[in-house]
Design a protein that fits this description.
Elements (H helix, E strand, L loop, with lengths): L1 H10 L4 H23 L1 H9 L15 H19 L1 H51 L2 H6 L2 H19 L3 H21 L1 H22 L2 H24 L1 H6 L3 H27 L1 H26 L6 H42 L20 E9 L8 E9 L3 E6 L5 H6 L9 E6 L2 E2 L5 H6 L1 E5 L9 H6 L7 H10 L3 H6 L17 H15 L3 E5 L7 H15 L3 E5 L11 E6 L2 E6 L1 H7 L2 H9 L2
Parallel strand pairs: 3-8, 3-9, 6-7, 7-8
Antiparallel strand pairs: 1-2, 1-4, 4-5, 9-10
Helix pairs in contact: 2-5, 2-8, 2-14, 3-14, 4-5, 5-7, 7-10, 7-14, 8-9, 8-14, 9-13, 10-12, 10-14, 13-14, 18-20, 20-21, 22-23
């Protein structure tokens, strides 16, 4: 259970006082449980013979023998003066008090454990979300979104159900077993040693069945990641599935993945379901053996065991059975949950390929230029996307990037905010290598408006306010006016408080884009990246959005990716990309006159 100990070591320390109180209450719960049973010994001896009357009161001392003698004394007095009926009533009242204390301490232990369980699960969810936000984009290009979602939701849920729900059993059942065994050892050390010899057999059988449980559980969670990935792809590509009449093929593919998950879960649950009947069978077998051995000791008279003590001993052993079953179930649950925790840890322990500088350089604003110095980049080693690209972008100008799809334009701009790190060369802002800048400082300088505007399932107001913390209502409305969005916002059902649906699905493409621009306007960064912001719009929407973009780019350094060359004619500098290199650069008229790549692209679009 080394893995379980590592989980406790990582997540339990903030709750150590809760854990200490829970252990204390569980110990008291176990002690009063043993006391409630062992006090039957003098009653059985007095009622059925074989016992001696405790005639003299002995002084109280902190040992079991002293407590036993004092209790026997009071029981003897009641028995002599009131008779057997009153003695039974007296013992019953003592039993009620002992049981009340036992169950009360059990509740207090569970009360403390609830704080630990829910707190640890909250911490794991918080840590995995923070890790997802902090990991660089290359990590997610290698991982399927559905599998990441499965780890952040289903696997964390499995940790809660399997590991955290077993905490109470793990910290309660061993204490009950140990305290009860101590009581049994005090009654008959010969019989207890015999019982302890039988326990390893039980542990061996449980371990033999649970050995493959973690492996099967990991396979099941991996398969659930496949199922969720397929569902996420289906939801994203539903239009394409319908358009290509591929519903039957997708259903068959999903059925195969779903059936594979069912088979893995069948194996897993069959093994897990074996825990309870196996532990019950072993417990019953051990009781039969104990009855045989204990009875032999009484009949032979070779030990100190008497009939009343043996009856109480069997009662104590029965109190071990349920904690042992609980511990067995906890073992199976933990083995299953540890597989889920391994998958969660693959994200929590993922090493970021793009890291904060150890000794960052602070940069107050942007005043001079951006410089790409012989920059190369490859997503896959040996397959460069950019090849020794150099470009000097002075503050305040608009640079347009044009060229064929796959020529490296989007990669070029993604390197500036360090969504990816250069393979070779440097990118500098005001002479400082961006690898020396803190992420927060670098990102504060840059705004993005993409071809596919990324909006959140929230209100219009909150989507615009996303661009700036503590933005005022006036600032948000002013940003919307600059982006030509204010008028259509007022026409929606609740104005700025209108929910826009998943990814802004309740709005048109042009409306979504204008909200994206308003968000960038509110942030007011000195550097703006525009990635084909009008390419997917109709003519009317494009006119409104282009007007908003013109306002946005005013007095800023702007890097614009465009397929429609007509939208970048007024750019201060146009760079033509071809196979990862800048093959031409200049103004619109200069490039047309040169008769090169740009001229051919322009003539093709105006054919």
């Amino acid at each position: 259970m080394r893995d379980l100990w590592l989980i406790f070591k990582r997540f339990i320390p903030p709750y150590k006082f809760h854990l200490a109180r829970s252990v204390l209450f569980n110990l008291l719960h176990a002690l009063f449980g043993v006391f409630a049973i062992t006090m039957l010994i003098p009653i059985l001896e007095l009622l059925f013979g074989g016992g001696s009357v405790q005639a003299e009161r002995v002084p109280f001392e902190w040992d079991v023998q002293s407590i036993k003698q004092i209790f026997n004394y009071h029981v003897s007095r009641v028995y002599e003066t009131r008779g057997a009926g009153a003695t039974l009533l007296f013992v019953g009242l003592v039993a009620i008090i002992a049981t009340a204390l036992k169950t009360g301490f059990a509740y207090l232990a569970a009360y403390e454990m609830i704080s630990i369980r829910n707190g640890v699960v909250r911490d794991i969810r918080r840590d995995i979300y923070a890790k997802i936000v902090s990991l660089p984009l290359p990590f997610f290009s290698e991982e399927r979104k559905g599998d990441v979602i499965a780890r952040a939701t289903g696997d964390v849920q499995e940790v809660e159900v399997s590991v955290m729900s077993s905490l109470e059993m793990i910290f309660q059942s061993p204490l009950i077993i140990l305290v009860t065994l101590a009581g049994m050892l005090f009654m008959s050390w010969e019989l207890t040693l015999f019982v302890l010899v039988l326990f390893p057999l039980m542990g061996f059988l449980i371990g033999w069945i649970g050995k493959s449980l973690k492996r099967d559980s990991r396979a099941g969670q991996d398969k659930m990641g496949d199922v969720l990935s397929l569902m996420e792809e289906t939801l994203s590509g539903l239009r394409v599935i319908k358009a290509f009449n591929a519903g039957r093929r997708m259903n068959e593919k999903f059925a195969r993945e779903n059936e594979a998950y069912r088979r893995v879960q069948n194996r897993l649950m069959r093994r897990r379901s074996l825990a309870h009947p196996l532990s019950e069978f072993i417990g019953t077998a051990i009781i039969v053996v104990i009855l045989w051995y204990g009875g032999s000791l009484i009949i032979s008279g070779s030990g100190s065991l008497t009939g009343p003590v043996f009856i109480t001993y069997i009662g104590l052993f029965y109190t071990i059975i349920n904690p042992a079953k609980n511990l067995t179930n906890a073992y199976y649950s933990v083995r299953k949950g540890l597989a889920a925790m391994d998958r969660v840890d693959e994200i929590l322990r993922a090493e970021s390929s793009i890291r904060e500088p150890s000794r960052p350089t602070r940069l107050e604003g942007f005043s001079r230029a951006i410089e790409y110095d012989r920059v190369s980049f490859a997503y896959t080693e040996g397959m460069p996307v950019l090849k020794e690209v150099s470009l000097h972008i002075p503050r305040g100008i608009t640079v347009a990037l044009v060229g064929q799809s796959g020529s490296g334009k989007s990669t070029f701009v993604d390197l500036l905010p360090r969504f990816y790190d250069v393979t070779a060369g440097e990118i500098r802002v005001d002479g400082v290598n961006i690898k020396e800048l803190p992420f927060a400082d670098l990102w504060e300088l840059i705004g993005n408006v993409n071809q596919d505007p990324i909006l959140f399932n929230d209100t219009i107001y909150n989507n615009i306010a996303f661009g700036k913390e503590n933005a005022t209502r006036e600032e948000i409305e002013q940003a919307a006016r600059i982006a030509n969005a204010h008028d259509f916002i007022l026409q929606t059902e609740h104005g700025y408080e209108t929910p826009i649906g998943d990814r802004g699905g309740k709005l048109s493409g042009g409306q979504r884009q204008r909200l994206s621009i308003a968000r960038a306007v509110l942030k007011n960064p000195p550097i703006m990246i525009l990635d084909e912001a009008t390419s997917a719009l109709d003519t009317e929407s494009e006119k409104l959005v282009q007007d908003a973009l013109d306002k946005l780019m005013r007095n800023r350094t702007s890097i614009v990716i465009a397929h429609r060359l007509s939208t970048v004619r007024s750019a201060d500098l146009i760079c033509v990309f071809h196979e990862g290199r800048i093959v031409e650069r200049g103004k619109h008229e200069e490039l047309l006159a040169a008769g090169g790549h740009y001229s051919r692209l322009y003539n093709m679009q105006n054919f």
